[in-house]
Design goal:
Elements (H helix, E strand, L loop, with lengths): L2 H27 L9 H10 L3 H11 L9 H16 L3 E22 L5 E3 L17 E2 L4 E9 L5 H9 L8 E5 L6 H10 L4 E5 L11 E2 L26 H4 L7 E3 L2 H8 L5 E2 L9 E3 L4 E22 L4 E11 L11 H19 L6 E8 L7 H9 L1 H7 E6 L9 E5 L4 H8 L11 H7 L7 E2 L8 H7 L4 E6 L13 H8 L4 H19 L7 H19 L6 H25 L6 H16 L35 H7 L7 H24 L6
Parallel strand pairs: 3-7, 4-5, 5-6, 6-8, 12-13, 12-14, 14-17, 15-16
Antiparallel strand pairs: 1-2, 1-11, 4-11, 9-10, 11-13, 15-17
Helix pairs in contact: 2-16, 3-9, 9-16, 10-14, 12-16, 17-18, 18-19, 18-21, 19-21, 20-21
Length: 681
């Protein structure tokens, strides 16, 4: 071999070796491409790739058939979502659990009138809508039969039973008719009925279609009832289905959904006591003379559930997660609930994939989450959170939930307060889908110039396990407040095209907000959190509570803790402003930003208490969480709110004081987390 060739070959070998070494260094340090920091370019590219037709196609595919959790069609929907993520070039995973789900076997309701006429009450939507749709039922309702006089229970609140007793209406042994609303869950309405001796319950929704039946769950709490507090993995521990810890989550009487038309047939025939004025309903409440023959038989089955994930690994902080989630399972076709959100989630994957092709890499890891079995009680997300609680505690930056992306007109959002600013700023970058104006202007104009941001004490979607159990800062977003096809067989693609969002522009807007917020949370070197907003919110809660308690209990512990938290929030925000303005990429500056981000991320965990809420220990968050009774007048400090129900009893003051101290300690822990000192004292 000629010497010149040998030297050339040696040079080529050295060059090849150098390239391999360089590649290894790049992989090791996750060096971003040169234009990684051009955030405006990528956000503009994200918005420019919006496609109404693509979102519509996703929704059409998702809603061709019903896909109730635990059924073969539900698995088909999971496979479809995973295949779409894979087609976009994203890394996918599927997480499988087994859970106790509930299904109907037989139901019948008949009305017997004074003259002896018996009229069967229809328990299904028109046959044209029932192509494989499950019969209307309440998941986890006990089986049972009852024959009793019909009585109208209004919303089924304790105050409603007090009003009925005052009017002389005896409800024991009756079949109760309940209208859904006033913050009462199906479980609470049925459980209250059982406590008052009602034999069975029929529930209807006033703003639903005449022939629509609102399916739903009557289980109390979240997650698989057989694995309370731990994940339902195959081969893992499971309680027996007859264990009191399981059966105690189900109401003591059977219940069924009733259509508005069916309710009208029964209610129009009632006599007896007059409806109380405060119910704002003209008519009689019974009991009788109409009698109801009620039968329901259900079954509990262990079923596999499947949650699907698409992962876009972060380039510089791959161990910090921005989680974007929506559930996929539906009672029926689920065009609004939940697959308007699923279609938007798939569109996020498509648009993020396009950004990746342009050279974008998120700083932090983005995880797109498609949950299963949400309708039965947030089971898919809860089991996953319980299984991954340690990693979430140390690595989860934020969880952004979109359940029913589009129900109708109008923007509705709830957040933990440190996320207010980033959400508001994004609304100034997108257009309102109906007016064409800047969304922020339209949104605030609709609320008398106020940024109407709700909070997350509700327990009605998949943000609940992330915030209430794991302490992850969270957002919940949807367009439209209510819709008449909720949980009925009318919730179809055809309804969406005719009424919900004919042009799919609202879907595009929701996806735009979702994606832009995610880009900021995943890309910005310093997380766009502002705990000053949290401090202001806590101060307002303290003021409201002080007014309600009227000096009967001292709020000094909470006041002092809020003062400490406020100081920490202002100090942290000043530090964040300085670091955001520092473009330095040296190791010290990068480390300072990382350390600050960790404090911003974990401060929310300070509000968790390992003992949980009284009687609801699984719920750990002391600022936001479920209140145990519809009589509560506040939707914050749930432990305090629940203790206040007993005001007037001998031990009530001591219970309230203890909960006040617990809240104060939680706020102090959050302040300590923000400061990040070696020792808080």
């Amino acid at each position: 071999m000629p010497p010149s060739w040998k030297s050339t070959r040696t040079l080529l070998l050295l060059l090849t070796l150098s390239l391999f070494v360089l590649y290894a260094v790049v992989r090791r340090h996750r060096l971003p491409p040169p234009n990684h920091r051009n955030a405006a370019y990528y956000r503009s590219a994200f918005l420019s790739t919006a496609s109404n037709a693509t979102v519509a196609a996703y929704l059409r595919a998702l809603t061709r058939r019903p896909h109730l959790a635990g059924t073969p069609l539900s698995l088909s929907a999971a496979v479809y979502v995973q295949s779409q993520f894979r087609a976009q070039g994203l890394t996918t995973r599927m997480s499988n659990f087994s859970a106790l789900l509930s299904y109907p076997k037989h139901a019948s309701v008949a009305a017997r009138f004074r003259n002896g006429t018996v009229l069967p009450i229809r328990l299904a939507e028109p046959s044209a809508l029932r192509n494989g749709v499950v019969a209307p039922y309440h998941a986890y309702s006990p089986s049972g039969a009852a024959y009793g006089a019909a009585v109208f229970l209004n919303y089924g609140r304790e105050e409603d039973y007090t009003a009925l007793a005052a009017a002389g209406a005896e409800v024991t042994g009756c079949v109760g008719i309940v209208r859904r609303g006033a913050g009462m869950s199906r479980h609470d309405a049925a459980a209250n009925a059982a406590a008052h001796g009602v034999a069975a319950v029929l529930m209807y929704t006033e703003d639903a279609y005449e022939e629509g039946f609102e399916r739903g769950t009557v289980m109390e709490g979240l997650g698989d009832p057989l694995t309370p507090g731990w994940a339902g993995i195959d081969g893992g521990e499971k309680l027996r289905s007859d264990d009191p810890r399981v059966t105690g989550k189900f109401p003591g009487v059977p219940s069924l959904p009733l259509s508005k038309a069916g309710a009208a047939t029964i209610l129009s025939s009632l006599e007896g006591a007059s409806s109380p004025n405060e119910w704002r309903r003209i008519g009689r409440v019974g009991p009788g003379p109409i009698f109801i023959n009620f039968t329901y038989e259900g079954e509990l089955k262990m079923k596999p559930i499947h949650s699907v994930f698409a992962v876009i690994e972060g380039s510089e902080e791959p161990d910090r997660y921005v989680l974007l989630g929506n559930h996929r399972d539906a009672w029926t076709y689920g065009a609004v609930d939940p697959n308007s959100g699923t279609a938007a989630l798939l569109d996020l994957g498509r648009r993020f994939s396009h950004l990746l092709s342009l050279g974008w890499m998120p700083r932090r890891t983005i995880v797109l989450c498609s949950w299963d079995a949400e309708e039965f009680g947030m089971i898919g997300s809860t089991e996953w959170v319980e299984q991954n609680i340690v990693n979430l505690g140390s690595k989860a930056t934020v969880y952004f939930n979109v359940d029913c992306a589009v129900q109708g007109p109008g923007l509705f959002v709830s957040t933990t307060p440190q996320l207010d600013d980033v959400f508001v700023e994004v609304t100034k970058q997108v257009r309102d889908p109906d007016s064409g104006n800047i969304l922020y202007e339209q949104w605030t104009a609709a609320n008398n110039g106020v940024k109407d941001i709700g909070r997350l004490s509700r327990v009605d979607s998949d943000f609940a396990p992330f915030l209430h159990h794991a302490g992850v800062p969270s957002i919940d977003l949807y367009y439209g407040s209510e819709f008449p096809v909720y949980h009925t067989a009318f919730d179809s693609y055809e309804w969406m095209v005719k009424f919900g969002d004919p042009s799919f522009q609202r879907h595009v807007t929701v996806a735009g907000i979702w994606g832009l917020v995610a880009l900021r949370l995943s890309d910005e070197p310093v997380l766009p959190f502002n705990y000053v907003s949290y401090a202001v919110e806590l101060q307002e809660y303290n003021r409201i509570l002080e007014t309600m308690l009227k000096g009967t209990v001292s709020l000094n512990p909470i006041s002092a803790a809020i003062q400490e938290f406020t100081a920490a929030a202002h100090e942290t925000e000043e530090e964040a402003k300085k670091l955001r303005a520092d473009p330095g990429t040296d190791e010290i500056t990068v480390l300072k930003k990382r350390m600050l981000n960790d404090r911003l991320m974990v401060a929310e965990r300070g509000f968790l208490d390992p003992e949980g809420l009284p009687t609801r220990q699984w719920f750990k968050h002391l600022i936001y969480g479920p209140v145990g009774n519809s009589d509560n007048k506040i939707d914050f400090f749930p432990g305090v709110a629940n203790a206040m129900i007993g005001q007037g009893k001998d031990d009530a003051v001591a219970a309230i004081e203890h909960e006040i101290w617990r809240v104060a300690r939680g706020i102090e822990r959050a302040a300590c987390g923000l400061r990040g000192d070696f020792s808080c004292r």
